[in-house]
Amino acid sequence: MQVSLPALKAFESAARLGSFKAAAAELSISPTAVSHHINKLEQRLSVTLFTRSARKVTLTALGKELSTATSQGFQSIEIAIDKITAKDKQIHVTTTSSFAALVLIPTLQAFYKQYPEIKVNITSGENIDANNFTLPIRLGETDKQSSADVIKFEQFNLFCTADTAARFNQAERLTIYTTNWKNSSLPNVPLQAWLELNGLQNEQIQVRHFDQELFGIQQALLENAYVFCSRTLTQGYLKAGVLTELNTLAINSQLCYYIANKENHLSRHNFMFIEWLENILNKS
After folding, report:
1. What are the tens digits of pLDDT across the range 18-58?
2. Phi and psi (nearest 5°) for 134?
3. Domain of 255: which CATH number?
4. What is the DSSP letter of 103?
5. CA gap 187, 183 in Å, rounded
């Protein structure tokens, strides 16, 4: 048997509060509307749910039975809605270790300041399993990605401390840290092309490699050496004054950061996060 949901809601409220007037206030409708809904419900069920008097209404035995059922039903609905809402307010991001450590985690407080009701969970690693419940931020070859999925095209340049930068033209031999990717399918870091672009191909250079840009940056800081790496990943260090970008020409690469099948992940809060992230990245 089909019954009106507004009628059931009016009944549940009146039964719980013991008053048509109180139910009307809770539901933001008139007491007459509450009475009308309950009358229609009684007619539909062919039962009397309330005993009415001039001053109050009292549940009948059948009314008490229905009150228990409707109360439990609406509570279950409210619990489900709360769970769904809570899940929607959590953003699950999977990305590379370097991007997580150097870009996302240092800037999360700025995101929380703008969107305090949203929680961001970050999982890092080089192998990322994507599904519709996560935002998979990846580093990949630009030509293999849809332009709609790209959030940042990568440029590379040389970085070091301010003191080390002052000695760049005086050094007889340079030590440069850079990256050999764990993922062998990625294009190589464009170090040789950068050297030629800046007329440095004949300089005495010792190149050392790590499999993540994060490690190269850390080691260059420890040794007062140079690191050839992504401009995206150094923006936090640059802002803090820990690193400086040399006055050399940056070079475009074949790499980009992207979200695979981005349009499939555009829930309301994911959209807010992606918009915020793209704004952060494009400031670098």
Report:
1. 999 999 999 999 999 999 999 999 999 999 999 988 778 89
2. -125, 160
3. 3.40.190.290
4. I
5. 9
